[in-house]
Amino acid sequence: MPLACVPISDGMPGDDKKIPAAALAGHAEREPVNLKELAAHLDLSPTTLSLVLNNSPKAASIPAATKKRIFAAATKMNYRPNYLARSLRASRTRTIGVIVPELSDGYSAMVLSGVEAALTNDCYFYLTASHLHRDDLLASRTRMLIERLVEGIIAVDTPIRFDRALPVVSVSGHEKLDGVTNVELNHAHAADLGIGHLYDLGHRQIAVIKGQEFSSDSDERLSTILEAASTRGIPIHPRLIGQLIGDSPSPELGFNATREILSTGVKFTALFAFNDVSAIGAIRALEEAGRRVPADVSVLGFDDIYGAAYHNPPLTTIRQPLFEMGSLAASTLLNRLVNRDEDAPQVLSVEPTLIVRHSTATIAGR
């Protein structure tokens, strides 16, 4: 496991080196000092301190006792670098902007976990902003990130409607834009896994919940599901296609969409939901209508969020590797920052996995 690291330079040699966080542990209750004040206290040159505090290779000739004394004094005197000054001098902030629709315990949280893991491993910090599906917030939040000198932007399920002067990586983006790398799920494979699973269980009357219109995955996911069903000779009745309405991350949207499907009176024995959150809402609506899951209706989710395995019944779902997608987005962006002359890949595809639990079963009477 890599050591945690803290950038503490004032723009002296070795700015981007890593030092053990343990070396700076502790916090004295006093006003912080700057590098010159700390150097004066130790009767050493600021350059010597900078080499040691930044773990520069040039510090190899400095005695271990002196290094120990420097670290101890930095902790005791609450030394803090002038981060803004360092960033301006070095033209680096080691900060990435991440723009998301909203912060919830589902999709966005899992992607952010992957982003955080990759950035932390490289001593990068990130700022997160939510646009709540509002165009005005998307514009203003992105502008604020850029004004705070982020070096690049990761857009999560978010349309690219901002200046692309900085490197941009989009998670679940489908727009083919110059300079933007899209980290995408193989939706055709995901649909084939889901419809194939229901087909093998004997289901031929399948309802589908489509995502909200603003979601970048909605059209792609529905079209691939319809194609996978058609390939197996399963016509999906138009009235069995529900729609998530609203911008809430709550299961209520899936609950409402399922009630609309039930109200049509068209028979179905399985339901393929847009995501796990809407699948949870769908199960509640089915049970309130007297339909048992999975005895009467099988329910298939999508994403495999943290709570999917602990729902009652545990959700069968298409696992989208959200953590890995976030990590891949972050590592790709960092690579672009280091190798700016290289052509950025336009698409990076990841593969889904079918996770079979207890919300799907063989059709009754088969």
How would you briefly describe this protein structure?
The protein has 366 residues and is an alpha/beta fold.
Walkthrough of the structure:
The chain contains 11 helices and 12 strands. It folds into 3 domains: 21-88, lambda repressor-like DNA-binding domains (434 Repressor (Amino-terminal Domain)); 91-186 and 323-349, Rossmann fold (3-Layer(aba) Sandwich), CATH 3.40.50; 187-320, 3-Layer(aba) Sandwich (Rossmann fold), CATH 3.40.50.2300. The strands form 2 sheets. The chain has a 6-stranded parallel sheet with strand order 2-1-3-4-5-11, with helices on both faces. Strands 7-6-8-9-10-12 form a 6-stranded mixed sheet, with helices on both faces. By secondary structure, it is α/β, with parallel strands linked by helices. α7 (187-200) packs across α8 (218-231). The model is unreliable at 6-28 (pLDDT under 50).
Number of strands: 12
**Strands in their spatial order, largest beta sheet:** 2-1-3-4-5-11
As an assembly, this protein is single chain
Q: Would you identify the CATH H-level superfamily of the largest domain? A: Response regulator
**Which topology of the largest domain does CATH recognise?**
Rossmann fold
Which structural class fits the helix and strand makeup? alpha/beta
CATH class of the largest domain: Alpha Beta
